[in-house]
Amino acid sequence: MLHARLIELEKQFKFSPLTQLFSSLLEQNQVELWIKRDDLIHPVISGNKWRKLKYTLDHALKINAHTFVSMGGTYSNHLHALAFIGKQLGIKTVAYIRGEQAKVLNPTLQDIQNWGMELRFISRSDYRLLRQYKGHDKLPDRFSVDLQEGYYWLPEGGATTLALKGVGEIIFEIEKELDFDILAVPCGTGTTLAGLIETETKNSFFLGFSALKGAGFLINDVNNLLTNKRKSTTHWDIQLDYHFGGFAKRNDDLLLFIKGFENEHQIELEPVYSGKMFFGLFDLIEQGFFKPGQKIVAIHTGGLQGNR
Ligand SMILES: *Cc1c(COP(=O)(O)O)cnc(C)c1O
Fold it and tell me: What is the mean pLDDT of residues 174-178?
């Protein structure tokens, strides 16, 4: 059973609706496109970050962790969610942040600091080093404070095996409402995609959209998170070409697309993840990538705080 403090915290969350989108493009290509609104589950916590953190933090609380330690970039939705959750739970939080501290903190870091997270800015090389540490109780000696009892390490983006179970709950919710053929999701670390693949019980196809450039390694990373029976890539793939120059990079095409989408559907996107996924998805639909009659579900993973 989930730790009592997380059951209490979960009362703040709303069920995310599944709604169908309509447009002439979809009609012409005879595909159905649905959107799972995980951007609406909480006013502060980004959708997939809660899903990923839920069972990792459950483990942390059950082994009596008193401090969560993690890492991220200066606009990290993961740290933003973790800092807020830490405050709600009364658990101390510490973050290693890539790069030097700017004179004025951006709105993401400002929030994080207001919620009591301790910020430690580190060099890019140290950041790369920390990236390799995935276990909750292991860090390089130099970061040894975090090896003391009660400190719990969460890797970048909350990419743990325990994250898969929480993400899988999205599948249960969707399957109750719709018999879908394709599920689309944006990818950073690929953990969300892995959780979806791992949980699904029918014969659906999963399509990730990488937010990063040159992210061929994601196939391997996702495979490493999956248990054996799910490793076969006949059930999933990752689109690697809709990165727009790299992580958090954007251009006018992307921004125009997002504006058009928002006007047409009254749903806010952001350019780092959901904007790129929908751009890619619409491009593939236009190319006839999907068969007529197929039902596609795209997951809106949230992250709108980064738009500020
Ligand atoms: C972190 C994040 C992702 C990427 O999730 P991964 O599990 O790392 O692939 C996608 N969308 C949003 C909004 C995010 O904040």
Answer: 96
